[in-house]
Structure formats: structure tokens, C-alpha cells
Amino acid sequence: QISRTIDRLFANSSQPTRTESEKTQNQSGLASLGSVSFLTHAVIGAVLFMLLFLTGNTMMQSVRERTSEFGVLKTLGFSDGGVLALVISEAVILCGLAGLAGLTLVHTAGAYYASLVPDIAGVLLMTWASFFEGLGLALFTALAASVFPALRAARLNVVDALAGR
Q1: How far apart are CA 40 and CA 121, in angstroms?
Q2: Which of 8, 28, 130, 163 is most enclosed, with most CB atoms within 10 A?
Q3: Predicted TM-score of the model (pTM)
């Protein structure tokens, strides 16, 4: 009531006042940043592209360094599909565990900071749907980045692999 009285006193002045709650002020401050959702999605897209590129590059280097080991596996009787599955499963395990660790850290840190600043808890808290979406993106990154290296390992000629060519 006091704030409304003050607003009415200055309604016709050259600089009228407009009283609002702190929560409303925080929300309007976030809205003034522009489309936070668009910005977030753009950053996530760029990060996902870079992760895909770096993971694919790392997997290609890993397959190149282990060409002779894949040749030995094929000599011992592993099929092309078996070698393909090994390379893909390696990428899925590594990216899955890294994604799980990162998402768990973000989920825990978000909950902790939301408890410290309850006014903006909605921005900091990660939903379980977002958690599983992030885990799905980590697995998609692993699959997409490991397809070409796995195909290369599966198509290896045993003689060339053991000769180091």
C-alpha cells in the first residue's frame, strides 16, 4: 500500500515512479537480455558441433594408432562386425561416462546454487528431461563420431594392417 501511495504522489511529475517487486525486477532484467533460449540453443549447437568434431578426430587417431592391433584381432578370428562393434562401444562408453559425470555435476551444482539463491531457482535447476536429453546427445555424439573410424577399422585388410601400411 505504501508503494502505491508513493506511485500516486509522483504520477503527474516529470519523473513518475513505478514500484515493482524484486522478483518482477529480476525477471524483467532477464527478459532484457533478449532471447535467452535462442542464445542458449546457439551455444549448445556450437558446443555439440565442436564435441562431434573433436571426438571424431580423436577416434580416427585412436584407430590409426591401433591398426596393427585390429589386424591381430582379425587374424584371431574377429569379424568385421566384431571390430566395428568394439570401436563403437569404446566411443559410447567413453562419451557416455563423460556425459554422465558432467551432467551429474551440473545437476548437483544447479541444485546447490538454487538453494543459495531461491529467487532464480527456475533458471538454475536442471530437469530430469534435460538430464536425459543431454545424456542422449552424448551418446549420439559417440555414435556419430565413431561411425567412420569404426568402418575404417572393420574394412582393414589383415596383411596391410600387420605390415603397418
Answers
A1: 17
A2: 130
A3: 0.68
- Cell matching residue 162: 600387420
Q: Which string of DSSP letters, residue by residue, matches 77-115?
A: T--HHHHHHHHHHHHHHHHHHHHHHHHHHHHHHHHHHHH
Answer whether 59's CB lies under 8 Å from 145's CB. yes
What is d(CA 47, CA 107) in angstroms, rounded to the nearest whole number? 19
**What is the tens place of the pLDDT at every residue in 24-54?**
777 776 666 666 777 888 898 898 899 889 9
Asked if residues 115 and 95 have their Cβ atoms less than 8 Å apart, the reply is no
Q: How far apart are CA 151 and CA 86, in angstroms?
A: 11
CB-based contact 162:72 (threshold 8 Å): yes
